[in-house]
Every structure is written in C-alpha cells, then in structure tokens.
Amino acid sequence: MAWTDICAFEDLVENSGICALLNGQQIAVFLLELQGEQQIYAVGNYDPLGKANVLSRGIVGSVGEQIVVASPLYKQHFDLTSGQCLEQPEVVIPVYGVKLQQGRVWLNAIKQDQQASAA
Amino acid sequence: MTVHGQRSPGSDYCLSGSGLGFFYGQNLVVESAAKGLKDITMQQTKQILVIGNGMVGHHFVDQLRAKDPSAQITVLCGEAQLAYDRVHLSGYFSGTSAEQLALTTEEAYQAANIQYRLNCWVEQINREQQLVVTSQGGQFYYDELVLATGSYAFVPPIPGNDQPHCLVYRTLQDLDAIAQSAAVSKVGVVIGGGLLGLEAANALKQLGLQTHVVEFAPQLMAVQLDQGGGQMLSQKISELGVQVHTGKATQAIVAGAECRYQLQFADGESLETDLVLFSAGIRPYDQLARSCGLAVGDRGGVVVNDQCQTSDPHIYAIGECALWQQKIFGLVAPGYQMARVVVSQLTGGGHKFSGADMSTKLKLLGVEVGSIGDAHARTPGALSYVFTDPRAQVYKKMVVSKDGKRLLGAVLVGDTSNYDSLLQYALNDMLLPKQPEQLILPAASGAPLAALTLPNSATICSCHNVAKGDIVAAMDSGCCDLASIKSCTKASTGCGGCTALLKSVVDDELKSRGVEVKNHLCEHFAYSRQELLHLVQVGGIKTFSELLSRHGQGLGCDICKPTVGSILASSWNDYVLKKPHVGLQDTNDTFLANMQKDGSYSVVPRIAGGEITAEKLLVIGQVALDFNLYTKITGGQRIDLFGARLEQLPAIWQRLVDAGFETGHAYGKSLRTVKSCVGSTWCRYGVQDSVGQAIAIENRYKGLRAPHKIKMAVSGCTRECAEAQSKDIGIIATENGWNLYVCGNGGMRPRHADLFATDLDTDTLIRYIDRILMLYIRTADRLQRTSVWMEKLDGGLDYLRKVIIDDELGLAAELENQMAALVNTYACEWKATLDDPQALKRFRQFVNSPDADENIVFVEERSQIRPATAEEKRQWLQQIPITELPVTTLAEEN
Ligand SMILES: Cc1cc2nc3c(=O)[nH]c(=O)nc-3n(C[C@H](O)[C@H](O)[C@H](O)COP(=O)(O)OP(=O)(O)OC[C@H]3O[C@@H](n4cnc5c(N)ncnc54)[C@H](O)[C@@H]3O)c2cc1C
Ligand code: SF4
Ligand code: FES
After folding, report:
1. Interface predicted TM-score (ipTM)
2. Domain A12-112, architecture per CATH
3. What CATH number does the domain containing B213 carry?
4. Shared domain check, B874 and B766
5. What's the rounded Cα separation, in Å, for the pair B200 and B192?
6. Strand ranges (DSSP E) for B699-765?
7. B504 and B411 in one domain?
8. Are the Cβ atoms of A7 and B524 closer than 8 angstroms?
9. I need a labelling partner for B292 at 20 to 30 A (CA). Which of B351, B453, B498, B734 fits?
10. Which residues pair with A38 in a beta bridge?
11. Ligand 2 nearest atom to the CA of residue B720, by list position
C-alpha cells in the first residue's frame, strides 16, 4: 500500500501549507480554495534553489492560470501540479498523490513522475 | 632648465629637481628645455587646460569629454572640492549635504581620464609660453586655455567691513562660516536686497536669526521687478518676519550696544546686528586676464566674441567671468550655453553664442517671484497690463508689443502659475490670444497654455538646451517616465526651473499617445497600494478573500497577499495570525521570526531604546544557552538569537514572554527600533533625556505595520551619537526641545534625513510623527521606504511640511485619530500566539512526526554554532545509514 494516512483535514491550514514526513521524505501539503471548492496539493518540501526544507512555509497563489507556491527564501515560484519552477523551468520538484478520505488526508509516497513511468 | 620624466596615461608625476608639475604628450621620455618640451606637445593631442571648476567649468569638461574621448583635459580647481551645485547652495542649510550638492566625484573624473588639481589657485598666465603658474609655483602648459573662473561676492567699501562675522554667500566654505557665526548670533543683516540677498536672508532665518534686509535702492530686486512688484514683495516678506529696509545707504559698521555691531546709515539711523552678510552683487574673477593683457570690460569681465574667444585666440572665457556684448550673465543656463559653444569650437563645430534669456522664476522666503524678458517695459511703444489682488497679495504685470500681438516681458509676485505659459509665449514669439489679459487674470476661462500646443522647437530646459522635440524623440525611443526622460535628455537636471513644464510636456505627450500611466500592484489587482488601502478602508473590507472577490482576480500571490495583509493590519490592527490572515503573511510574519538561509529562524525580543536591565540580559543569555542559539548584537541596539528550529520557537518565546519581553517585530515590515544615545542623564554634553524619549516613542509605534520597515533614533545633543540622521524618523535634542529629521535611511542607497522642523516640544513632536507615519502608510507604494516615498511626492519635502505642519489638506486630525486607534489596540503577537492552541499547532516541523528537520545542521565556530556548509552536511549525513525507500508500483496498489 502506497497510501499513508497523514493527518486530519483540520490540521491543514486554508490557503497555506503544512509539512508531513513520510519515509524520510519531507512533503509540503497545501489547502487552497478554488472557486468555492477546496483542493489539496502535495509537493516536495525541499527548495532545490534555496537548498533548505521550506516550501511548506511559502505563500500560495496563482500566476496566470498556474497554481503556485513561492519559496520563502528567494521567491521563485513552483507550479503545484507539475512541480516546475517558473523562473528556472529546468528545475522541477517532486509532486505527490494526495486524497481526502473520511476526513483524513492521505499521501502517496511515490513521486508522480515515478508513478507515470511505472504505469 | 632640464627636466626628466616619464608619464604614463592618467598617472600623476613630479619632475626631478624642479618639483613642478608638467603635462605633455603621452609616454614620452623627454630631456629638453621647457620650450622644446612644448614643441613636442604640439604634435601630440592638444592639451586643454581649464581654470576653475565651478558649474560652468565642469559642464565644459563633461561635454568635451562626451564629444572627444581622447582630448587631454586638465582642470585647475581653486576650491577644495570639485564642482558642486551652487544654484541649490541654500539647500545646505536645510539638510542637503555637500556630497548631495556635488555635480561629480573625483572617481568619475579619474574614470574619465580627466586630470585635476584641487586647492589649486592660478596666479598668472604666460601667453608667450602658453603656460599658467599656480600659487604653489606649479606650472601647467596649454594649447587651448579656458577661463571658467566665475565671480566673487562684492563687498562694498564700507569702513568696518573686514571684521569677524562680516561674511559673504557664495561657496560651501562661506556657508560653513555663516553657520558657525549664526550659532553665536541672534540678529543677522543682509546688505543687498537682490535675488541672492533674499535667498541669503532666507538662510539666516532658517538658522534661527532675527533677520533684516538692507537695500540701497528704493525697492527689492530692482533688476528683475518693477516698482509695483517690488513693493508687493517687500510687503509679503515683512509679514514673514524679515524686516526690509529700502533706500538705506550703509556708511559704517561699528561696535554695537546690544548686538555685536551697529550699522550706521547715511540718513542718520542705525541698526544693531551680530552678523553681517554682504550680497551687494558679484564681480567677475578677471584679474588673471587683466594682468596678462587680455581685453576686459570697463566694469570688469573678460571680453569674448560669439565663439567665446578672448582677445587671445587660444584663450576662451565662459560663465560668469565672461563679458559678451557688454553683458555678464549671472545665471547658470547661459554659462552652460557658452561651455557648449567652446566645446563645439574645439571639436570642429561652428556653434556660436547668441545671448541668453535672463527670465527667472523662484521662491524667495516662500514667496513666488517670476520675471520674464522686458520686465520694465523699456521697449519703445510697449504696453503693460497690470493685475493686483491686495487680499491674496498677488501682483502680475504683462508687457506686450505695441500691436498687442507679442509678449515682451512679465513680472509675477505671489503667484507664478502663469510663468511657464508666459515664458513660452515670449521665447517662441508666439501670437498672443485676442485678449492677452486673460493670461494673467485669475480663474479666467482662458486655460493655461497646453504644452501640446508648443512647437517642437520650443526650449523646455535652457540649462541643457533641450527642446520639446528632443523630449518627444526620447519618448519615441522608449523613455516613458520622467526619471528616464531626465536621465536620457538631461532636461531638468540643471537649475530645476523647468521641472513643472517638463512634467506637463511629458504628461500631455503620454496622454496624446493614449498611454495610461499604470501603477498596478500585480496581475491580481489593477490598483496601486494606495488605491487598495482606500478600497479597504472605505469599503470596510476585513479579509483578503473579500477584497479579491470584490476588486481582484485569480488567487493572489506573494506580492499582493503580504501587501494586503499589511494594509489590513494598519487599517484594523487585527492579530496577524487570525485565521483569514494566516495565508497572507510572508513566512517571517507567519512564524513571527526571521527565516535564515537553512530554514532555521532567528529571534529578536524588543529592547526599547536599547535599554535593558541586567536581569533581562541574564534571561536572554540563559535562553540562548538552553536552546544552543548563536547570539549577536544588532545595529539597532538589541540582541539577535539565531539557529532556532521552527518547533522551538514557542518554548523560546514562552521563556521570554514570562520574563517580560515582547516581540521585536524584526520580521515585519513595521517599526524596528528606536536607537538612542545615553543622553543628558549620563552624558556631559546631553541636553535632553534621549533614552526616555526613545523608549516612549518605541513603545508608541511598536507593531505598526507599514509599506516597509521603519527605523528611528534619538540623540541627546547635536553630536548625534545615535545617528538619527540616517533614519526614517530622526530626533535630535536641542536646548529648546527636539529637532525632527525625516526620510533618511542606510542600506543600499543611503540617504541623509531632511530637517523637517526645529525645537519642537514633545507633544508637537509626537503629533508630527503620528501624521507623517500615517500619511506614509496611507499613500506609499509597496516596499517603498520613506525616502523614496517623500522624493516621489509631488512637491517633496515642502509639500510634506504643508500637509503635516500647515495641515493644508485638512487631514491632520484624521491621521492622528487613526494612529491613536492603532496605538490603543496594540498587542504583543507572541503573547497572543502562546495563548492560542490553534496557532501553536503551526509551530511543528511535521504534522505527523515529532522529528526535526535533518537538513538543519550546525557546527561550532568561535565557541558558538553556525549553519554547516553543504560539504560539511554531506560528510555528516554519510555517517548515518540511509534507509532505502520501498518502491511500490501503481499496479501493486490498484
Ligand atoms: C546662492 C546662489 C544662488 C544662485 N541661484 C541661481 C539660480 O537660481 N539660477 C541660476 O541660473 N543661477 C543661480 N546662481 C548663479 C550660478 O550659481 C552661477 O551663475 C554659476 O555658478 C556660474 O558658474 P561659473 O562656473 O561661471 O562660476 P563659479 O560657479 O563661481 O565657479 C568658478 C570657480 O572658479 C574658481 N576660480 C576662480 N578663479 C580661479 C583661479 N584663479 N584659479 C583657480 N580657480 C579659480 C572659483 O574658486 C570657483 O570654484 C546662484 C548663485 C548663488 C551663489
Ligand atoms: S549625542 Fe550628545 S548627548 Fe548623546 S551621547 Fe552623544 S554627545 Fe552625549
Ligand atoms: S532650465 Fe535649468 S534645469 Fe532645465
């Protein structure tokens, strides 16, 4: 089973992030409200440009159509669905599967690119 | 004479034996008589020697270098520093520093390969040998010599005029002497009621002296104004507290009874004063020209032709020392024109000097005065229109040609709003409207001359000879704001007289191009910060999502969210971590600490005014020891504790709050610290209790959210140990109260604060600071420090004074009330956080594990911790076994 129960839905902070530890990996989990609907995103917590585990503490928002988090260190933006850095497209952070079940937040420890290649 | 020497480009050198400096062609080894040396030079690049580095001399050098990058230029500068802005010299008394007045720097001259000597006074010109001799005995050869020696203040031959405290107003040194003298004087008299005399009177008044102006003629500013204008000016100035004495011939300066001196007038009356400032006209520095046989005018001045050549074709004269068609031009713009003429002559061009317009517009002692062209209606057949408003004390006169079609001149006192239009009519010989009087009548429907209707050839800036066409061309090539147009065309960077006209030309031009000047915060809000603040306050909007749904689009971003967070905080002072505001804050505001490069935080408790008890110091020390934090004293007189992990912050703050500390807001765009010196309590020089004041002020404004951080300081006397003049708000104690300085800062672009008001009592001081800060919060752009904010205000410091001190906008009470509301609702955010279990939940590294972030690693250095480098971390991580990740596949999972 790759899905792991991380925390209660109430532990998430609306329009902001928290961090979970899963098999030694730090994962940033964000709760956003999009047109009245709540949406959860999960990406790596490590900022490869600032070289520190800080992305869960960044500000979330949108740039054009893209939903992003801005690193609190040097303010680069990372797309929450693709993991791509807007300022330096060659830099991509891992994106994780996340789901809400019976009021609990579940994470899939497998990075989505691995999932894709495995499929 | 035999000389030896070798010179490399740009270097300085001395020739053995003689001790004299010589300049000659590059990289030559010379062993010859001086004359032979010059012959060699002739075959090399021409040596251009400039005497005097005033405004005009500098403009010449600057323009020549731009036209001819290889010209050999040497400048002999009689003053102790390179050229500075004499036109704005008076700014020196209202806070502009010598550095800010400087027109160039030694580094810039070096970089442009311009040789220069400071404190180098030329005594003699030897035209035969084409060399000049300085007072130190140095000799400099020239192929072409440029006299830019300017002029000196004329001191009338009155017995007693050479005593101490009898001064003139011309150089930075003069101003230092005046300031020194004013410090030990109570009354000051300016002798001479011309343009410069009134400016000098203003300076004396600013220095706090009881000020008088004594004028020989029956009216003030007799050169520029007619009798009616002169009278109106006297009246207005007298009401401003400067006593005007016209028609007075001073005969002697003798010892006084109540003051240091007594002026004795020809009519038998007298006037007591401590300081005498002569401003009775200027005289050209023409002794050099005179003694080497050049033609000079009967009343002084080096005679020049249209090429600005003197009677010796290898010697030119420009600026205030030059006499052209029996005229000396005492303004900077004509001097700059002459400089450009000589540059053109030396680089093969054919520009000629054809006279200059002497119109002036200025503000003397707060009174607007303008004079254009034939102000005295001396042209035969000229007709005058005069308008006087005795209540508002405005006097306007317009001189038109016999046929009523052309404007010949004008006099404006008390209101110069028509100046730019009138000047353009006069300069461009434009046809006047059918009823020309409309141009000076108040509230006439005849709109002021729109800049759009000016011909492209109209000169906008006469200092730098910029026509409207040049500005349009600059805008065509992509400059679209004032700043870039200024730096590209140089317009408005001389005397500054054309600033308003330039702005209206640019604005009109932008409008006609359909450009809307945008100041949008980001893609989510098509509003500036100021507009958003207005929307929030008027609409009573309390949350970001409400503002976004009513006035924005998208989800917001890291630019608009913190900005709106700050606007909400300064409007309603809600606890910043209240649920709807959490996602708006930068991480530093969210966790009430400053994130460092490795993701750890630093902690700064408030130490108001830098005063701390031994007990509290021990608490900080013990906390640092217990949590293994790195400690450092900050520039703001407090203590920064580094290396706290996110999850440690609440425990650390619990200890600090228990001991009576509050948050220092080091993380916020808000008031940081109020630095202070020990002041009169301990210091033998102190005149007020600067520490007490600093603590009171810091406690008043702590927690105040603003567009950017705010720093303040209080010094106990003028020695200024707290460096208050480098702060947004600086306060310096005086015998009588407090001097308030505003809008300074250190950092990347340091700026000295401007003196805003003097000798305030504490009440007034606080009221002014309340108003300034609140206005700043209400109107500044995002991340705009007070300095830039103030510079961008239309009207700058003067405008700020009008709004804050004179309350011209009628805003003062509202600003004070808003500040009072914020002050009254202050609460320490850390205390509130510790009391809120929901907020505390955020202070853990992981929602699902008590582990710590293993990427935060410290090593020891100088007996304290510091973050490990990447290499150190790699080594450290290698020592712990890495558990392999279980790889599961999608197939498995389904
Ligand atoms: C207080 C004040 C306000 C003014 N306001 C305005 C204004 O609003 N608008 C305006 O257009 N003009 C104004 N002026 C006039 C303007 O400053 C002058 O027109 C301008 O500075 C003239 O420049 P210059 O280079 O010819 O002479 P200066 O600026 O006087 O420079 C001449 C330099 O040559 C040096 N020198 C002289 N003789 C020798 C020598 N033998 N050897 C070496 N060096 C020598 C002098 O020391 C001086 O540094 C003002 C002047 C003053 C004093
Ligand atoms: S500023 Fe004045 S009062 Fe304060 S420490 Fe310095 S000398 Fe003393
Ligand atoms: S006219 Fe002097 S700066 Fe433009």
Report:
1. 0.86
2. 3-layer Sandwich (2.102)
3. 3.50.50.60
4. no
5. 10
6. 710-715, 729-734, 737-742, 754-760
7. no
8. no
9. B351
10. A33
11. 1
